[in-house]
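Morning!

This is the sequence you dropped in the shared folder:
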Amino acid sequence: MYLGTVVEQGSAVDVIERPQHPYTQALVNAVPVPSRAGAEGRSGDRGSYPDATDVPSGCRFHPRCAKRFEPCDRVDPPLLRAGGAEQHAACLFARPALAKEADAVVG
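The structure's back. C-alpha cells below.
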C-alpha cells in the first residue's frame, strides 16, 4: 500500500520474491540481509517523500519511481495482472502495451 492505495497484491511468496511494482521492489530491497549488507547497486526509490494531503496526479508513486515513463504522471493505473497468475500490480510498467493505450486515451 502506498499513500492509501494498494499497489500490489498476490501471494506472499510472489510479492516478496518477484515484486512487480517499483514501490514493492524498493521495500524488498530495503530489508537488511546479512549477505547484502553494504552491497552496492541496491535499487531504491528517488525523489522526495510525498505529502499525503497533496497526492500527485497519475500514479501516486511516479515522483519517486526510477521506472516512470509517459503516461505515469497522468494515468492512475488499476491493479493489472503481472508476474504470477494471482499477482497484480498497479503499474503501467508491468503492462507497457496498456500504457500505450492509456496514453492515447488521456493524451
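Headline: The mean pLDDT is 81.

More detail when I'm at my desk.
O.
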